Amino acid sequence: MPRRSVEDIACLQWQVRLQSFRITRPWTQLAYNYTEKYQICLKDRRSSSFIYSTLLVFLLSTGIISSQEFSEISRLERMSPTLDAHQNETLKHHDSGSSLFEIEDTNLSRLLDKPRPLSIERKRSFDERSFSEMSISSPPRQFYRNSENSSRVFDNFGSLYSSGRSSVGTPRSVTCVESHPIFAEAWVFLQRSIVHFRGQPVGTIAALDHSAEELNYDQVFVRDFVPSALAFLMNGEPAIVKNFLLKTLRLQSWEKKVDQFTLGAGVMPASFKVLHDPVKNYETIIADFGECAIGRVAPIDSGFWWIILLRAYTKSTGDTTLAELPECQRGIRLILNLCLSEGFDTFPTLLCADGCCMIDRRMGVYGYPIEIQALFFMSLRCALNLLKNDDEGKECADRISKRLHALSYHMRSYFWLDIKQLNDIYRYKTEEYSHTAVNKFNVMPDSLPDWVFDFMPTRGGYFIGNVSPAKMDFRWFCLGNCIAILSSLATPEQASAIMDLIESRWDELVGEMPLKICYPAMESHEWRIVTGCDPKNTGWSYHNGGSWPVLLWLLTAACIKSGRPQLARRATELAEARLLKDHWPEYYDGKHGRYIGKQARKNQTWSIAGYLVAKMMLEDPSHLGMISLEEDKQMKPQMKRSASWTC
Ligand code: GLC
């Protein structure tokens, strides 16, 4: 093997990195990002110019950028003060429309002789129009460096195309496979977890762990299937997702009873299982709508995830026919009827029983838990995209719009906590009456827990766990805050503040294994009262402050959306170091997530899928579009509560 020069190696490294990003639209920002990085680390302007030329030619020759884009980047480049004259000459040369290979430097053709051709086939997806309109009104944010020297890339990934690759069974992402061997292993496990019904793949089993009692871990859970589905979509395998959506829709139409009581028509199952009768050689499905679940609670999140997944499928494949089926339209309306019906509510948030979501045991998450409110918000926005413009669709869309308006106002105003708001609550007066009350819910300042004063950084904030009369649950919950970012329930400033908090409380929230399901844990007396002495939910275990690898995909998506992919990379590296070795546990225990969970299942599918989705999104950030919604300008906050909203 011939010895390579430093420049050659640097160029090759660029090529590899570029491949790993599969750059499409964000090429300008990423190119600048890399240039900047190299200028910083090489401190040699000639070298970096050389590399920059190589980069441009590489992008052009592999078809990642068109000649028009090449010209545009050249124009921008000429405005950059960091380039030397030689570079400008080269770029001008190309700007004038000359052939790519007329570039003078002979080294370039040598370096470029083996770029792997990338076929970047992008499909315009169904809600592209609204996204691109948004990106016109809000130009991509330029990357910049924050105090911790982390580069941020612009956050308009929601407007990107999702890839429509095809063929089944193996990971498409060569770069990810090369970059870490556990990526390939994870795919093998994910494929193994697929559940078939009458010959068709319909979902993935919760855990493939025969060493522990199976309970219901041998079922296909709706919420657990979401990261699997995203992984399949990202890998160009939409069939299993479509089958799943149709199968669960069928289950929705079953009559659902707990004892003598009939559940609402829109309720979606928490999970289902395929039963095989070996005598008749016939398969049937049984489903659990909460009648078998611990605590007998119906899963409110299932319906929301179903709508979110239907939108992800539609956006990823560009196939609108599934969502347009009358039964799908009806399914969406039935789910939302459960939430939009009029009653005694004085709040636009959704009143819930404990344990109706990912945290499916008693954990003091009854009332108005952030997880459900954020998913509710996101599914309402997805439904707006999916509903047809017929009479029934329009009627439902009107109700949705009104609710979204009130919900975003309520959440952004009353669930949001930052240092200023915390200080305001600390100084609240109580027993106020009438419309002029500041402390609307009559929250007692004495109910503020000690930990929250230390936990709250000077810069940063989050949506708290719950707000109801005289009750604020100050715990930080991962899923709700990440979904708030992805759905744009959080304003861009709030999204940034949430990320600031995660960065500054990294040890507490990520520690040695991403990511805390909630923070902090309840212990001793509080644990006894709130969990009812649940031995599975002791302090820093399971739902009570345990660390759940599945949450990595949500963190990654939120990081990419808010322009901090490097944070997600850090978290992914932590997960990579242990997950395969530990056999993909369901959760980890301890303040820093150092120990495999007391009762954690091994080969937990969503731990595997969560990792795959995180990796694939980091490799190709355009995937984010299937699970992210841009800000709706009409839902701008009407009131400003504190500094972190405006900074
Ligand atoms: C546990 C989790 C729940 C998950 C299920 C299957 O019950 O709390 O969120 O869906 O396991 O993995």
UniProtKB/TrEMBL annotation:
Entry superkingdom: Eukaryota
Broadest EC class assigned to this enzyme: hydrolase
Any single Pfam family the record assigns to this protein: Glyco_hydro_100
Transmembrane segments: 49-66
InterPro entries linked to this entry: 6-hairpin_glycosidase_sf (IPR008928), 6hp_glycosidase-like_sf (IPR012341), Glyco_hydro_100 (IPR024746)
Keywords carried by this UniProt record: Carbohydrate metabolism, Glycosidase, Hydrolase, Membrane, Transmembrane, Transmembrane helix
E.C. number: 3.2.1.26
Any one Gene Ontology BP term: sucrose catabolic process
Catalytic activity: Hydrolysis of terminal non-reducing beta-D-fructofuranoside residues in beta-D-fructofuranosides
One GO MF term attached to the UniProt entry: sucrose alpha-glucosidase activity
Job description of the protein: Invertase that cleaves sucrose into glucose and fructose.
Family: Belongs to the glycosyl hydrolase 100 family.
Protein name: Alkaline/neutral invertase
Source organism per UniProt: Fraxinus pennsylvanica
